[in-house]
Specification:
single chain, 245 residues, alpha+beta, Muramoyl-pentapeptide Carboxypeptidase, domain 2, 2 domains, five-stranded mixed β-sheet
Length: 245
């Protein structure tokens, strides 16, 4: 019996060597999982239809200049435009809500922009039975300069690429929290409006919003519609290649 135990003990180092490769193989298999996870994340990266660009800012400012609208400098100018009716309040309802952080004094925009927001909110609610959220509307130059100090990606307060919020044409609608289907619906709706020259949209990653400048032409176009369509079709199919980086 003692001899058999000695033989077994002498075989233990050999057994350890035989088992070592199996253990190493197990470890290697485990390490592959994070690499596979990173590969999957690569295919879910930010890939919006409407990327912010210098050209888009130029288009937005060209529309402001065409309409001969002022860039609102401060709260005094803002209040004067409200009193004259040049800026209209955006009204919350079953299809539309506000980010509670948005100052009530800045829940205003141009009349045609207000109409656009109401139309898209109604269409979105009809499709998904959920509200659209307004995160930002009119701003003053003073507010924009303060924003730039905290967010260097924000548009400047002056010059040919100044923020179109300063003229009251633009709203930011929250993108964060939308499903893939909801984002695609928004993009199709905006693609159709853009093809008619009625909006200039951007999808901002830092704030996760749809930034939408609404052209003054929207008012005239809307008057030609007997009934504003609930769901707008795409005039041209949008291929995956057109959205690639």
């Amino acid at each position: 019996m003692r001899l058999r135990l000695q033989r077994l003990l002498s075989l233990l180092p050999l057994l350890a060597c035989v088992c070592a490769p199996a253990s190493a193989a197990t470890t290697t298999t485990t390490l592959r999982k994070p690499a596979h996870h990173r590969f999957r994340l690569h295919w879910t990266r930010w890939n919006p239809m409407f990327r912010p660009s210098h050209e888009s800012l130029l288009i937005q400012n060209a529309e402001i200049d065409r309409l001969e609208l002022p860039r609102i400098q401060d709260d005094d100018e803002l209040e004067a435009l409200k009193e004259s009716g040049a800026l209209q309040p955006i009204i919350a309802n079953e299809s539309l809500r506000f980010d509670p952080r948005l100052d009530p004094s800045r829940r205003y925009c141009r009349p045609w922009t207000r109409d656009f927001v109401q139309d898209i909110a109604q269409a979105y609610y009809h499709r998904f039975h959920e509200q659209i959220q307004v995160n930002s509307a009119v701003r003053t130059v003073k507010v924009q300069k303060k924003l730039r100090r905290h967010n260097r990606n924000a548009a400047p307060a002056e010059g040919e690429t100044a923020s179109s919020h300063l003229a009251g044409l633009t709203v930011d609608l929250q993108r964060r929290g939308m499903t893939k289907e909801q984002v695609q619906w928004m993009e199709r709706y905006l693609f159709y409006m853009k093809s008619l020259g009625l909006v200039e949209p951007e999808e901002e990653r830092r704030q996760w919003v749809f930034h939408i400048m609404v052209s003054g032409r929207y008012a005239d176009w809307r008057e030609t519609q007997d009934i504003v369509p609930i769901d707008r079709p795409e005039p041209v199919a949008v291929s995956a290649e057109s959205r690639a980086e």
